[in-house]
Amino acid sequence: xxxxxxxxxxxxxxxxxxxxxxxxxxxxxLRKQRRLELKLEDERKRLEEEKxxxxxxxxxxxxxxxxxxxxxxxxxxxxxxxxxxxxNDLLKAKRLYIEARNIYSVLPIGExxxxxxxxxxxxxxxxxxxxxxxxQEESKKEEELAKQRGIEAKARExxxxxxxxxxxxxxxxxxxxxxxxxxxxxLYKTPE
Length: 192
What we know:
Layout: H1 2-86, H2 90-106, H3 109-185
Helix pairs in contact: 1-2, 1-3, 2-3
């Protein structure tokens, strides 16, 4: 029995050693796998960072191109706005000012500083023209109103004259009828 016991103990020890070796081997494999996973994760992060940097660079280039294009568009609208103001075309000037202002709002800060005072000067000029046009329209309305009042006054005066003539005619007709009446009754003699 002791022999069996020794064999059993040896087998148990061997089994434990084998289990320990298997565990160590599994641990080694797990460590290797974990190291590989970490390397893969690091590589994936590095690739994502490179991709993000490339996308950022492309976005920056795109924004620079858009800014350059927007600046060109701004100056185009700006020049048309100046021409419209020279021609006193306020409706076109307002439309172009809104377009230039919208383009201005998307410009980068450096370009905004470059064009701000130019846009402001045209805005003020446009305001002065609008005020002048408003004054002219008000003056024209006043003239038309004065003309209308003159016409109405003349019409009232003509009406008064017409009424006066009608009254005078009626008075003279009544006077004549009275004379005839007095003549018939013998109180008045008509000159013959």
